[in-house]
Amino acid sequence: MNVYNLGDVKIYRITESENSDIKPTFFFPGTTREMWEREASWMKPQAMDKDSGDLIFPIQCHFIDTGSKKILLDSCVGDDKERATRSHWHLKHDGILLNELASIGISPDMIDYVVSTHLHADHVGWFTEKKGDDWVPTFPNAEYVIQETEYNFWVDKHQTEPLDHLEDSVLPVFDAGLIRLVSRDYVLEDILSFIQTPGHTPNHCSIKIESEGETGIFTGDLIHSPVQCKNPDWYVRPDYDHELAIKTRKDFFKEYADSGVVIFPTHICSPSIGRIVKDGAVYKYEFV
């Protein structure tokens, strides 16, 4: 875990896992082996395994301490969840997120808000934990802040295509009365603003944070790899609407490149935190 000071706010990056076994052409289905070979010289060894060429891919979230409020931004895969199609996730039990919070003196009951960029399984896992036979909210004193359109999309989908992560991670929090459904332009505590970055999910959002004249953006799954800064047309397999995701990414780069805005991504390899900068006719990701 590392910490970044943005104005008066402390932002902790919590990495639940960082694996290097994702085949690039599988995860980026519009690409070929030859396309990746052209990028390997600058991608290895930080973003691609130097031997296998597989992608180095973390699962992470962020803890924000404003001084007066304690906020968790997304919540990784979680423990004890049945995810049979994902061997690294299935029934894992390591407590990493809670242990990392404990290492800086934060217990689950101290969290004021859990804020969601979108409701994929690797972002909502620690919404709940297993107590006996029941799934209960991990952060009992928190409000779970979710964009209403994103929540409604997944709940509607769950009616016809049952989703394990809705059943064990999202709906128990709703049943406990802890979810706050918010508008697309919601502002939380005068410091976090929801901005629309659709495509990965229909109502995917990113979260802008501002403090003492400095700005950061938690991009969720808008960007999965630094290679997408150079190649924004490269979409990922989980994208709901890859054409929309591409457009959103290009618009985002155009707006924020060379702006000084700090990017806090979910899946970009360590050290992860960085900025988007112009690099001739394209863009690149610079770690900070």
UniProtKB/TrEMBL annotation:
One of the record's GO molecular function terms: metal ion binding
Gene3D superfamilies: Ribonuclease Z/Hydroxyacylglutathione hydrolase-like
Domain of life: Bacteria
Keywords: Hydrolase, Metal-binding, Zinc
Keyword Nucleus on entry: no
Residues making up the signal peptide according to the UniProt record: none
Record Pfam families: Lactamase_B (PF00753)
Domain Metallo-beta-lactamase: 58-267
Transmembrane segments: none
Keyword Cytoplasm annotated: no
Similarity section: Belongs to the metallo-beta-lactamase superfamily.
Name of the protein in its database record: MBL fold metallo-hydrolase
Lineage: Bacteria, Pseudomonadati, Spirochaetota, Spirochaetia, Spirochaetales
